[in-house]
Amino acid sequence: MEHVSVFNQELLNPLTQSEDPEVRSKAMDKLHMITARIMLRRMKRDHTSSMELPPKEVIVHNEFFGEIERDFSQSIMTNTTRTFDTYVARGVMLNNYANIFGLIMQMRQVANHPDLLLKKHAHEGQNVLVCNICDEPAEEAVRSQCKHEFCRSCVKSYLQSVEETGGDADCPRCHIPLAIDLDQPDIEQDEDVVKKSSIINRIKMENWTSSTKIEMLVYDLYKLRSKKQTLKSIVFSQFTSMLQLIEWRLRRAGFNTVMLDGSMTPIQRQRSIEYFMTNSDVEVFLVSLKAGGVALNLTEASRVFIVDPWWNPAAEWQSADRCHRIGQKRPCVITRLCIEDSVESRMVMLQEKKANMINGTINNDKTSMEKLTPEDMQFLFRGT
């Protein structure tokens, strides 16, 4: 146990308990000396020239809620804060970690679009299947073998048009070869099944109102389109329902999109990636962060939009690097969308704090050390 005592005396206690900057600085120097001998960290930014990578820029697009969204968000934040304070007062915060995580998720969803909460169950929604071609309630709905629904007339017209061109029909949704029986009976639209399939099926889209976050994205994409060049973009979100709303809005705005989420089979994922990479008219790739945040090489795109921040900065770094890889020839711009008067602004601060902790511990970075308070360092070592 002697080595534990030395660690506490020389490192842990000075870093977490001392308010003397000189004492903390000396302790951090000792920690740097130890980590430098046992760790090797290679940063891509230090080798971009040898890898022949173009520059990468990260920007934050901040906006404030509209009046209606602000009122709804404040009511949700008030309720969730009250619940959290109750856990703290009773001393059971750690025993309710899952519940607290759920409260945070609610506040994050509200920052994206209120319907992510309001239409979670959709007791008053339309609850009908939506055609994957016309984006309207499916008439005489039929289902393909890849489990996507269409109006019978829409898919029939689509197949006829492809046949006239002499090509092979792919599913407009997942882009694998389309196999569908046009003589099958109409799908019986079971309400419980419809609710589980897509948030679009649960909302009366003719009365639907977009959100500040979605309009931020549409505005940024329109700016790219106004230039005399084709710039492909990747849009990341952790909420599949948010991606579905974004897709519906972008299609209405005239953008061709492809989506990749966790419900797709490996073949569907690969065909969707190929469709995005090989079709110049497809401008936007909508990707679930958990399904496509790693192990993808999408160098055809040079713009990345992160719709909702995550408290682990490494997850965003990984997603941003889907396009900034070997083979990329154009400068890359990573845009993080953030609603200022929401929980997202605090999450961005938490990300910066975690990044500073990494730099202050692994790198010999005194400036990041100065940004960390004793409480921050206690979090680094104890997780509290």
Automatic annotation (TrEMBL):
It comes from the Eukaryota. Residues 131-175 form the RING-type domain. The keyword Hydrolase applies. PROSITE patterns: HELICASE_CTER (PS51194), ZF_RING_1 (PS00518), ZF_RING_2 (PS50089). Keywords: ATP-binding, Helicase, Hydrolase, Metal-binding, Nucleotide-binding, Zinc, Zinc-finger. Gene3D superfamilies: P-loop containing nucleotide triphosphate hydrolases, Zinc/RING finger domain, C3HC4 (zinc finger). GO terms for cellular component: nucleus. InterPro entries: Helicase_C-like, P-loop_NTPase, SNF2/RAD54-like_C, SNF2_N, SNF2_RAD54_helicase_TF, Znf_C3HC4_RING-type, Znf_RING, Znf_RING/FYVE/PHD. Residues 216-373 form the Helicase C-terminal domain. GO terms for molecular function: ATP binding; ATP-dependent activity, acting on DNA; helicase activity; hydrolase activity; zinc ion binding. GO terms for biological process: nucleotide-excision repair. SUPFAM superfamilies: P-loop containing nucleoside triphosphate hydrolases (SSF52540), RING/U-box (SSF57850). Belongs to the SNF2/RAD54 helicase family. This is RING-type domain-containing protein. It comes from Hortaea werneckii.
